[in-house]
Every structure is written in C-alpha cells, then in structure tokens.
Amino acid sequence: MTLINVTKLTKEYDGQCILKEIDLKIERGEAFALIGPTGTGKTTLIRLLDLLEEPTSGNIHFDGIDVTHNKQQRFEVRRRLSLVQQKPIVFDMSVYDNIACGLKWRNEKSNVIEQKINNALALVGMNEYQARNAKTLSGGETQRVAIARALVTEPEVMFLDEPTANLDPNTTLKIEEILANIKQEKKTALVMATHDMSQGQRLANRIGVLLDNRVMQVGSPNDIFCLPQSLDVAEFIGIENILPGVVTERDSELLTVKVNSHSLQVVSHRMVGEKVYVLIRPEDITFAFSKEKSSARNSLDGTIKRMTPLGTLVRIEIDCGFPLLGVVTRNSAEELEFKIGKRINASFKATAIHLIERWY
Q1: Is 158 in a helix, a strand, or coil?
Q2: DSSP assignment of 286-304, as one string?
C-alpha cells in the first residue's frame, strides 16, 4: 500500500533546477534506495520527502493527504517521520539523553521513555553505552546512536542520507545488519540515499536511479542491474558491453540482431528493423580456447587484447570485430594459460542479452 506518493516534483534554488518532475511512490514497510552520482539531487529529494523543504512545484501526498504546502498537516506528518543524516549531530550529553530528546519533546512519560530507549539501544547493539558521553563515540558508534534516536519515536518512515558514506567496511556491515533488522522487526519503511550501488542491492526491495536531476528508472534490484531501460542507466550501473545493433530477423521471441558483421541470437519482444543497444554483463560470458557444446546460442572468436587482475578474478577484453569484456577466475586464467594475443572463444546465452532502444 502506498504511503508516500510524489507527482511532478520539481525543486529549484536561485533559478537552478535541482530536481525535475519526479514521480515516485514509497510503499509501507519497504526498503527503498535512491542511487545516483554525487550532486544529482539525492539529498534534496530526501529532504523534500521528509518535509524539511517545500518543492518549487509538484505534489507530495502522505497516506492519501496532500502535505505539499499545508503547514499544519506538514507538522503533524513530520511526527511520523525521522531522518538520519550523513554526518549526524549529537549533543554534549549521555547516549541515553541524546536518544531521549525526541521523546521528551513529545512529553512521553519517563517509564515509557526508558522502555523505548532500551529497546532502541538493543536493536543497534549499544546497551552498554547508555552513560557514555555521545561526543566521545567513534563515527560508527555515533551513527548507531543516530539510528536509535531516529527509531525511538517509532516512525512510519525512516530516511537515511548516505548512512555509511564515511565508515570503514566492518562498521558499514554492522550498520547494514542493523538496518536489515529494523526492516524485518519494526516494519518501518526505510528510504535511503546512497552512492553505494551494492548497498542498494543488499538492502532495498526497490531502487530508484537518479540521473540528471530525474528519476530515470524504478524497479527491483534485478530490474535495475540486469534490465536497465536506458543507455544512461546502463552506463551508470557499470554494464561494460554496450553494443549498437539492428534487429534483422524474428522467430517468435527469438531475434537475430546484427552487431557489426556478427549475428547474435537474443530472446526479446523487439521488432524487426529496430535499432537497439545490446547489453551483455561480463559475468555471463564464458571463455574457452574452442567452441564447446553448450546451450549457449552465441559463440564468437576473438583475440585477447587486455587482461586486468581484479582480486580473485581477471577481467579479459577480446577483439572479435568489436571489444567484448568478460571475467574469469584467476585460477581459470592460469590453468587455461590465457595470454594477450591468444585466440579464444566467447560464448553466452540468448537469455543473457538485454536490449534497449537506440534512437540513432
């Protein structure tokens, strides 16, 4: 069920457009990630959704109520929301008192405050820190206190702006575990802005891609990272094999797409004559010295032009009339004695190819 519904949302500062005609829905209890490069408007959108700023134009509905400009309604809805900033501010007082602030401002009874704080501290693993001065905490501990402070008021939506941007990998993992537990136990909707695409995949039910001040695509992690709808999204998420082609034949859902002098078999609903981009993820390509018997409909011979170690993997680029990038394990590359200049075969399934429309 939709909790936040945004239509044609636009925000300008001093005549400069920061966000343009954003359409977006946030469902109850879901984890939603906004991904996009730095400076594309993620923080501004979070602040608009959290009702800290008003849009230049467009509308925001919360639980069916238009809260775009009505000050009284915005105030009442704000009490149902919370925000964790990228660099949270803590007061020069104990962890307990920092977390208690929101409850005291709401005139909660002391026994209720104590119970809620204990529950929140337990969820973020900070029970033993109650008496510590919050100013003495590490960055990761401060972020956990900020999450507890945002959680203790029992919000329906918790907004998080780059929640792990300044944290080390181990602390990041701890914060992500906490957010996953909140999602599971509290049924609180989580809306996070992050430049970490893998974090969005790990935590979110749905992802919105914010590019050039617009939400370019919304969908499940699989939709975004395997089925991008535009060239801009495909390039942003890091699909390296983006090849221009034309659909030349169609047999039911099995298409033939011409890429340079090669004909590729693709499962798609595109029509004959359409100009398309052929997207192939490197991990879907299998390399061998000769064509092997397999279910893969596509097989291309090429020459190894470049090999780049990537931890336990090796990134391989071959020239088969166009550059084609794939990855193999370091052990496989060594066992097969792959070297620059060698001829090898690249194969991939028809279902491993995704097509998007090409306008030129």
Answers
A1: strand
A2: EEESS---SS--EEEEEEE
Q: How many CB atoms lie within 10 A of CB 58?
A: 18
User: Nearest-CA neighbor of 228 among 357, 348, 36, 326?
Assistant: 357
The answer to whether 4 and 48 are in contact (CB under 8 A) is no
Contact of 221 with 33, CB cutoff 8 Å: no
The number of C-alpha atoms within 13 Å of 323 and in the hemisphere containing its C-beta is 10
CA separation for the pair 251, 265 (Å, rounded): 10
Those residues whose C-beta lies under 8 Å from the C-beta of residue 136, and which sit 6 or more positions away, are none
Residue type (1 letter), 148: A
Which two structure tokens, joined as six digits, stand for 18? 């920061």
User: pLDDT tens digits for 171-184?
Assistant: 999 999 999 988 88
Query: CB neighbours of 239 closer than 8 A, spacing ≥ 6?
Result: 228, 279, 280, 281
pTM above 0.85, yes or no: yes
Burial of 41: CB neighbours in 10 Å, binned 0-12, 13-18, 19+: buried
- What are the tokens at 197? 């695409």
Q: d(Cα 100, Cα 121) in Å, to the nearest integer?
A: 11
Model confidence over 204-247: pLDDT tens digits?
Answer: 999 999 999 999 999 999 999 999 999 999 999 999 999 999 99
Residue environment code for 280-292, b if the CB has 16+ CB neighbours within 10 A, otherwise e: bbbebbbbeeeee
Query: What sign for the dihedral angle of Cα 98, 101, 103, 108?
Result: positive
252: left (phi over 0), alpha (psi -120 to 50) or beta: left
CB atoms within 10 A of CB 304: 18
- Cβ 182 vs Cβ 188: under 8 Å: yes
For residue range 253-281, list pLDDT tens digits in order: 899 999 999 999 999 999 999 999 999 99
